[in-house]
Amino acid sequence: MAEMSAGKTLTDRISRSASRELDLLPAMPMPAGVIVRQLREEDFDPLYDLAERYFGGAIASREVVRGIVRHNPESAYAIGRMTDDGAFRAFGYVALLMLNARGLEALISGALDAHDPQLEYLEDSGGQPAAVYVWGVVAAGKAIAGLPRIMDLLQAERYRHADLYARPATEAGLRILKSLSFVQCPRAGEPEGEELYVYRRIANRTAL
Length: 208
Prior knowledge:
single chain; alpha+beta; N-acetyltransferase domain-containing protein
């Protein structure tokens, strides 16, 4: 389900930076009024509708996504701004699967169904995930600036050793992943177009 729908602007900015390491991604200035926050109940339906517009039927059902977010609220973040009347208007999101050790094994083996992930594969809220699967991203326009803030959150100690996994759904998404030092995971029998990519966290790399 994961698609990096951030557009060409993000790729260009990252490509111009001194480092393309995701862990070292420099913070971009947040446009005035743009906010990143954990998904709230009032954000859910507008953002699910947004995902449907971007991805059509190639996403998990509304009920499945709601169940994942209820299981672990740290799985979804809304990007938006406050309106003049004080309401939050979301225009982008990042959805993550916080995988436990069994979930990581299932992802690598192909047993994890991204359209209906089993809760037994997911870390509880406040836990230390074995890996983070980028389940879905829509971040066009001003929402692009929210992505480095998500990485700031993933720099917390309990996430520092959790490698990031993603499946790009388009060539643009693949370019973004490669620009951020994701590499393809070699897996036997993997269908074309469903290749899994991984970003090895700096904390997990063995010094040469």
